[in-house]
Amino acid sequence: MIEHLQDSETYAAPRRETDFPIVIVGAGFGGIGMAIQLEKAGIRSYTIFERADEIGGTWRDNTYPGAACDVPSHAYSLSFEQNPDWTRKFSPSSEIQGYLLGIVDKWKLRDHIEFGVEIDEARFDEETGVWTLHRSDGETATARVVISAVGGLVDPSLPDIPGIDAFEGHTCHTARWDHDYDMEGKRVAVIGTGASAVQVVPSIAPRVKHLTVFQRTPAWVVPKRDAEYSEAERQRYRRFPLLLNLSRAFKYWMSELFGPIVYLNAPRLSARGERISLAHLRSQVKDPVLREKLTPDFQFGCKRMLISDDYWATFERENVTLECDPIEQIEGRGIRTKNGTLHEFDAIVFATGFELGLANAPFPIYGRDGRSLNDAWAAGAVAYKGMTVSGFPNWFILMGPNTGPGHTSVLVFTEAQIQHTLGAIKKMRDENLRYVDVRQDVQDHYNDRIQARMPHMVWGNCNSWYLNDDGTNHSLYPGPAFEYVAGACHFEARDYECVKFDAPATSADEETAAA
Ligand code: NAP
User: Fold this and answer.
1) Does this model's pTM top 0.85?
2) Of 94, 193, 203, 214, which is best to mutate to test ligand 1, by the most ligand atoms within 8 angstroms of its C-beta?
């Protein structure tokens, strides 16, 4: 474990590695990937604070029946920790969690993780270039660099349906599945038709007595074409890692090639996606009335495209009903819809998504001059390349604002952010810098360009979690992943104010005035 420095005096000449404590908040994909890259760079002075009692983030929490990744397994893994042993083309959640547990053990990262520790507040001291983090257990930790790897879609979102607490049966959210509750022979409702619903619905339908899916908005669904990897195939990937690299590269470049269909506001491209989806719908659902109800009326890609081989076909089952009448309220015995019908259930599953963690600071964060990140983000979360925010030196965000892809693996973006952060850490350490703070003009210019592209993207044409209340998009990257990676993977000192230890501390205001 690192020794946390208690005394800010110690920072006068931070030369030894133990004088450069790094904190990573969150032990999901981002935090684990960051830690491995620090290990590879020989930097061991880091601690990971994880509020849960196990690593894994999304893949620890999402254990609902059918939970899986809709990005191909060979692409949805860290490029520096590839896995030849995926059993399917699209990995189930448990296998991804197993992969993460495996690499954590391989790199002995557990020695660096403190579980059950939530960070309540972080405050930067400009004089010392040190962040002080307040922990939920009342202790404090200090760090020269903080890497926020808390993820963007973490805390379950429950709908604001009247009477939600009145239901007398069993309830659960997909991201908090209760494995002790047996759905066998029960009347079950699923509210929501997003990426989680398309996985849970076909998985529980054969087990329950009756399943009713409450759909507010139908989604575009395309075939997944999932299949097992045979033992022979896996052996080939083990023996010839080059094949694994090629498979990964192929999947990545295919997603880049077809990406514009998913993100560009180009009706002719969208129509191609819609044609593929409608053909899939026709092949899965014979009943034209049902097909009509399942057909979206918004442009392809505007909401997240869903990928499933069996979601639509599930509605052809005798024991499954698609309910499109809007929900009026939840009552003790079930769900009442606007037309007055009370649908009675034993259990309600909320497949209603997540609070958008990106919209606000994950906890109160105070940078230079005590400025809070929430104030800086009052008009929407912005960061330079989604990673650094002017006035919040030595603070790096993984999977931050405008770095989500709608068309490829988020890990491509995360790895670039890890490289950028590592570059900054090395620069700070090697040149004995007190802090690096992204220049406001550089950050503004970057975000102006990002927002200027948004009208050319499809996401503004419907409602989704991609958008803030004012309709602006601060979550997705408007372009191909390779472009983001090329621009983000290097730490460019010229984009930052790099302040040495012997330079006097100046406030951002003074600097602006001086300029
Ligand atoms: P989601 O996409 O936000 O979907 C939530 C669903 O709940 C939507 O269908 C929404 O309807 C519905 N809903 C919300 N409030 C409602 C209400 N009051 N009444 C009726 N319906 C209501 O959530 P999710 O499916 O959990 O997915 C969230 C994100 O997690 C995804 O977009 C994806 O990024 C990630 N995810 C990824 C995977 C993967 O395989 N990689 C799997 C699962 C999730 P409306 O559409 O009308 O708002």
Assistant:
1) yes
2) 193
Count the Cβ atoms, other than its own, within 10 Å of residue 504: 7
Query: Domain coordinates of the chain in residue numbers?
Result: 2-153+356-514, 170-350
Give, for ligand 1, the residue of 196, 203, 473 to mutate: max count of ligand atoms closer than 8 Å to Cβ.
196
Identify the DSSP state of 489.
Answer: S
CATH code given to domain 2-153+356-514:
3.50.50.60
The sign of the torsion formed by the CA atoms of 14, 17, 18, 20 equals positive
Q: Which two structure tokens, joined as six digits, stand for 72?
A: 């191909």
Atom 12 of ligand 1, residue of closest alpha carbon = 192
Tell me which residue has its CA closest to atom 16 in ligand 1.
159
The CATH class given to the 170-350 domain equals alpha beta
Inter-residue contact 468 to 380 (CB < 8 Å)? yes
Mean pLDDT in consecutive groups of 10 residues from the start of the chain, 515 residues: 31 50 97 98 96 97 97 96 97 98 98 97 97 96 97 92 97 97 97 98 98 98 97 98 97 97 96 98 97 97 96 98 98 98 98 85 96 95 97 97 94 98 96 97 98 96 90 95 98 97 57 41
Half-sphere CA count of 147, side-chain side, radius 13 A: 33
Ligand 1 site residues (CB inside 6 A) read 68-71, 153, 159, 161, 174, 191-197, 214, 216-217, 304, 327, 351-354, 465
Six-digit token string for 125: 């001291």
